[in-house]
Amino acid sequence: MLKVRNLTSGYDRSQILFDMSFEVDAGEAICLMGRNGMGKTTTVRALMGLLPTWDGTIEFEGSRLDGLSAARVARQGLGLVPEGRQVFPNLTVHENLKVAAANRRGDPKPWTEDRVYELFPGLLERTDSYANLLSGGEQQMLAIGRALMTNPRLLILDEATEGLAPVIRDQIWDCIARLRGLGQSIVVIDKHIKRLLGVVDRFYVVEKGRTVWSGTAERVRAEENTVKQYLSV
Fold first, then answer.
1. Do 228 and 117 fall within a single domain?
2. Alpha carbon distance 191, 196 (integer Å)
3. How do residues 74-97 score in pLDDT, each as one tens digit?
4. What is the average per-residue pLDDT within 135-161?
5. Residues 96, 98, 102, CA angle at the centre, nearest 5°?
């Protein structure tokens, strides 16, 4: 579905990604993990067309994404839950969801507000509340719901549990597991590996702008010490 090969990118003259490579199969959930500053969020921004591709390729469902604008990438079917949530603070929950709505032709069961409220019942009670009045957990649920309203073929969640209380983190991970069960293809950027072992299919370790290790949950368990060395500060 998604194939990233030897991706090179960065900011102005500062190169962050060096031959980044990974892939996501249809219906699969993967996790990009690594210490802070290793290039995970930069990878997401390059995928979404928010940063230029200096070299390498990004292929999605047989079409090249590298070189496309962010708007065209979104129309291809990539949905982003950005780091820091970035909901529209002066819009209500309903308006945040409505503004993102897109009905892609061929979707057998497109996402609607009602489906988002089924996934996050707490948002239904806040439908007329402005986003800046929501708790951090509610804002994160809204950010996920907003991304789903674009009916993405691939959903990317960048640090979706960062700064949240443990009980809210569990709700977000349960949501990811439910989406995976529905066949949603997912890329997760997260550091809570143990909790994700039962949620995602494959893990990639990112270090200094490239993937240096990859494996299934079983391999993570078998090579726990190796993975910990990559992730330790």
1. no
2. 9
3. 999 999 999 988 999 999 999 999
4. 96
5. 120
Give the domain range for residue 65. Answer: 1-77+153-164+184-232
Q: Is residue 172 part of a domain?
A: no
3-state secondary structure of 150: coil
Same domain, 9 and 53: yes
Are β-strands 185-189 and 29-33 bridged in parallel, bridged antiparallel, or unpaired?
parallel
Flag whether 90 is in a domain.
yes
Question: What pTM does this model have?
Answer: 0.93
Residue given tokens 């496309």 in the structure block: 68
| Segment 204-225 mean pLDDT | 95
- Are the beta carbons of 56 and 4 closer than 8 angstroms? yes
Q: Domain check: are 58 and 160 in the same one?
A: yes
- DSSP summary character for residue 153: S
If DSSP codes are grouped into helix, strand and coil, which group holds residue 216? strand
* Measured distance CA(53)–CA(62) in Å, rounded: 18
Strands 202-207 and 210-216: antiparallel
Considering its fold, how many domains does the chain have in total?
2
3-state helix, strand and coil shares in percent for the chain, rounded to the nearest 5: 35, 25, 35
Give the E-state strand segments of 82-201 in sequence order. Answer: 154-158, 185-189
Spatial contact of 30 and 201, defined as CB atoms under 8 Å apart: yes
Longest dimension (CA), the chain: 48
Report whether 9 contacts 46 (CB < 8 A): yes
